[in-house]
Amino acid sequence: MNPLLQHRSRLGAMVLLSNADAMSFTRLRELLTETDGNLGAQLRKLEDAGYVAADKQFLNRKPITWYSLTPAGRGALKRHLNALQSVLRSAGLDSGPS
Amino acid sequence: MSQSDQIRDDLSFVRDAVARRDRSPVSFTAPYYIWAVYVLIGYALLDFDVLWAEWFFATAWIPACAASAIAQRFLAAKRGECDRTMKRKSVLHFVGGGFLAVAAVVALAWCVPAFRGEIPGQVAVVLFGIIYFLAGVHFDRSFLWLGPVLVIGGIVVGFVPHYGWSALGIVIAGGLCAAAVISSRRARSLAQAEQRP
Question: Shortest Cα distance from A45 to chain B (angstroms)?
């Protein structure tokens, strides 16, 4: 398992980004119900690992930071989810896709 | 807490976040109003000056597409989500489908002498009805009923002696506005349900 993705906010952000081309910081914060500071710190760790890319833009002079999953991030997420599934299966907790 | 319990807890957190996203669907309704104006003007022109109507339909779709794209971009930024795959699909569906429909009608009018007068226009409306219906299947359920309205309208307009095209334009424009209102209301009610404890 990837230790970086063992934090639920980081895992949540990665899963959400895997289903969209890009998401703003505000949208991620709203969906993950996290505080600005915590989410910012978690996203920075993912950015440093090269799993997500950040792009700053402006809308009506207000800055928007867009986050998207990089190919390395997509691969890491896939491997991590497979590992999670194996752990749950070995514990007899995997009930298959629901 | 065991490792498997921790994983289950984390996955539950992630599932809630994904469910929250699914419960707040995108409501990009501004383009509906843009196309309602386009349809209203174009169809009304058909009853008054066919040449002007042809020019209008041949050129006004470009600024209408540009305005729709700008509106969608603005709304996506406001919502905080960018889905290029869906954008590509909808452009291919409406623009690609529209081009195919118009090309088919023009080719038929050129090849079949009997296919002249109001018939090409009616067939174009029927084809656009099918495009709208399929948009209902793939993108927004509001189009599911608007498609058949266009198909029926395209056929019925041939039996209306006066101002049939204007009437059809009003029906389609009204339908687009209704689809926009329904779509917005659905998104708003889902958002309100999400905010409730």
Answer: 18
Encode A60-93: b = buried (16+ Cβ within 10 Å), e = exposed: eeeebbbbbbbeebeebbeebbeebeeebeeeee
Among B156, B191, B193, which residue's Cα sits nearest to residue B25?
A: B191
The two tokens of residue A52 are 């997500």
Helices then strands (H, E): number in chain B? Answer: 9, 1
pLDDT one-digit tens code per residue, B30-60: 889 999 999 999 999 999 988 999 899 999 9
Q: Identify the contact set of chain A against chain B, taking CB-CB distances under 8 A.
A: 6, 8, 11-12, 15-16, 19-28, 30-33, 57, 59, 64, 66, 84, 87-88, 91, 93
Out of 3.10.290.10, 3.20.20.300, 1.10.10.10, 3.40.50.12780, select the CATH number for domain A3-88.
1.10.10.10
* Rounded distance between C-alpha atoms, residue A25 and residue B108, angstroms: 52
